[in-house]
Model the fold of this input.
Amino acid sequence: MTKRSWPMLALLRQRNPALYLSAHTIATIGIWTSKLGVAWATWELSGSPWWLGVMAWADLFPYLVITPFAGVLADRFDRLVVTRIAQVAITIIAATLAICALYDMLTLSLLLALTLAGGIVGAFEQPARLALIVSLVKNRDVPAAIGFNSLTFNLARILGPMLAGPLIVVFGLWSVFAVKVAASALFVVALVMIRPVTVQPRASRASSVVAEIIDGVTYLYRQPGLSAVLLVFLAFCLSGRGIIELLPALSDRIVGSLGIADSVIALSVLTSVIGVGAILGSVASTMLVRQEASFGIVAATGFVSGLAVVIIGFAHQSIVVLAGLMLIGAATVVGGVAVQVTLQLAGDPNRRGRTTSVYSLFVRGAPGIGALIIGAASELISVELAFAFAGAAAALISLRYWLRRSAIQATLVFASDDQPADRQDGDGTGAAPKA
Done:
């Protein structure tokens, strides 16, 4: 295959992305082994579904509160240094978990405190880490780098839990946390070895943090291309990603047609199908997503996802539901990569941390809100109509913007392919460069 047909291979021949992406892949596997370890420890210590929910909340809640402030941090300070410090803290937290598990010192309160601490550190790190990739590669390689990152994340979601189960059985609970320690430490080493190809522009520290957050939101609102991208993506997250949170209801409905007696096994099948779609979407995104057509891809995937939600809502045949979920899994990744490419390459480099933090908020928070709305509507009307309304709304919003894709795409100002993304002509605001 040529470099054009398989951009990942060309990417891995370069020192910075090879170091970052390989080490980040291993670190992500460590994260998912640890997540299963925390869930298992919670269940062993409490036997309570409520405590499982509390632990999930402790991991998620910091992202919803801290991410906007973390975006400012990513714009004011060196993103590579922020990521290094955060990964060291993550390694220390994982080491504490491993030691406590090894010596049978884990309690629910300690597990909750360490999970909350990990969530706080992760929330501060995520915008800096997501925005870091554009400092490591040339502009033309950013879509492939983001797509590769997405691919490894989705593979890690499968490989991490697959690894964690046997580790717990053979070596004990401490071993899954030890894997995360080793994986995070390796990522730290890789981050130390990385040398950015660009000098990161820094936001002014003259304003307050709150003023910087308001400035970031105002900036996005005033950019027609970027605000359109985020609006379509928000609709997509509320509907397509929202129904993923409601999979138990779907598994109960189609368990018979799947030929499976247990709804839990059916739920596992549905989740796996989404994972397969996400992996296929990750591979496809490295070849499909190009900056000159990024908005059209966002709108098209939003439409496909919305249409799939409508079909799933009325389908009672397992094959139709599985096909729809696979489409949603693929569209989620392709659309998400296109959104990141647009925000990172067409946005103001001085505000990249803040624009990335909005993306993170949508990814983390919108599916839960969407699930809450769709779930409540299902109780009031029916599952079929609730899914239909949610999917149709997302599809119509996406279609409206897809029909205007050429005009909207024209408002997005990208750097040239060979130019580092942190050094755009102009200010990234869509205005013409000054003479």
In short: The chain has two domains: 8-194, 209-413. Confidence is low (pLDDT under 50) at residues 1-5, 424-435.
